[in-house]
Amino acid sequence: MKLLISHASPYARKCRVTALEKGIQGIEELHVSPLDEPEKLNHLNPLGKIPCLIYGENKTLFDSPVICAYFDEIGEGPRLMPKDGNAHWAMRRHEALFDGLLDSALNIVIDLRKPEEQHSEQWQQRWGCAIDRALSQAQNELDKIEGDLSTAQIALACAIGYLHFRLGKHDWLAPYPYLNEWYEAFAQRPSMQATQPK
Ligand SMILES: N[C@@H](CCC(=O)N[C@@H](CS)C(=O)NCC(=O)O)C(=O)O
């Protein structure tokens, strides 16, 4: 299997953490810069985004939730996402919330990379508020998120890691001490340590 990644991509990190936690061996990580090397990526993922997994006989999977679900299925150990029922949908909801948090953070990063006169204060504020509401809900629902390792925990930890990595000037977790405590402990896992963004 080959996984197209960059060391800075938080979506790729979700997949890499999941693969490590599920004991999946033999994944070759190929480093791709989606903006600079579209020819390496676009024929595999028409959306031109990483992560993208190549498996089997040149089959591809993209979008980190799909790749994580695939790793959960083929890997060892307890499932990271309950197979069905209410627990499944509750976890899917949390995964969507934390992936959406990540999308808002990435939107801010992209906006900040534009020439200054093209920055949009209004959109940055909107995305920032979405991040804050998602973090607030994560802390309020921490009792449901904590516990056995799960897809939702990995998505949340990678999203918070990205806030620290790219938008660390702002202390996003200051209002959420319990969430911060949870994150600090989770970030010590070998899978998180091995995939720190660069
Ligand atoms: N929903 C996708 C988002 C992936 C994504 O946006 N990846 C970024 C890198 S962090 C990318 O490849 N961006 C290139 C682009 O948007 O053209 C996922 O969960 O995998």
Question: What are the defining features of this structure?
Answer:
198 residues; alpha+beta; Glutaredoxin; Glutathione S-transferase Yfyf (Class Pi), Chain A, domain 2; 2 domains; four-stranded mixed beta sheet; 4 strands; 56% helix; binds glutathione; transferase
Summarize the structure in words.
- The chain has 198 residues and is α+β, with helices and mostly antiparallel strands.
- The protein is built from 9 helices and 4 strands; from the N terminus they run E-H-E-H-E-E-H-H-H-H-H-H-H.
- Strands 2-1-3-4 form a 4-stranded mixed beta sheet, with helices on one face.
- It is globular, with a radius of gyration of 17 Å.
- The mean pLDDT is 97.
- Residues 9, 11, 34, 48-51, 63-64, 99 line the site of glutathione.
Low-confidence region ranges: none
The spatial strand order of the largest sheet comes to 2-1-3-4
Tell me the strand percentage band.
Answer: 5-15%
Give the fraction of residues assigned to helices. Answer: 55-70%
Largest sheet: 4 strands, mixed
Radius of gyration: 17 Å
How many separate domains make up the residues?
2
> What is the mean predicted local confidence, pLDDT?
97
3D shape: globular
Number of helices: 9
Distance between the termini: 23 Å
Strand element count: 4
CATH topology of the largest domain: Glutathione S-transferase Yfyf (Class Pi), Chain A, domain 2
CATH hierarchy, class of the largest domain: Mainly Alpha
The CATH architecture classification of the largest domain is Up-down Bundle
Structural class label = alpha+beta
The sequence of SSEs as H and E is EHEHEEHHHHHHH
The unique ligands bound to this protein are: glutathione
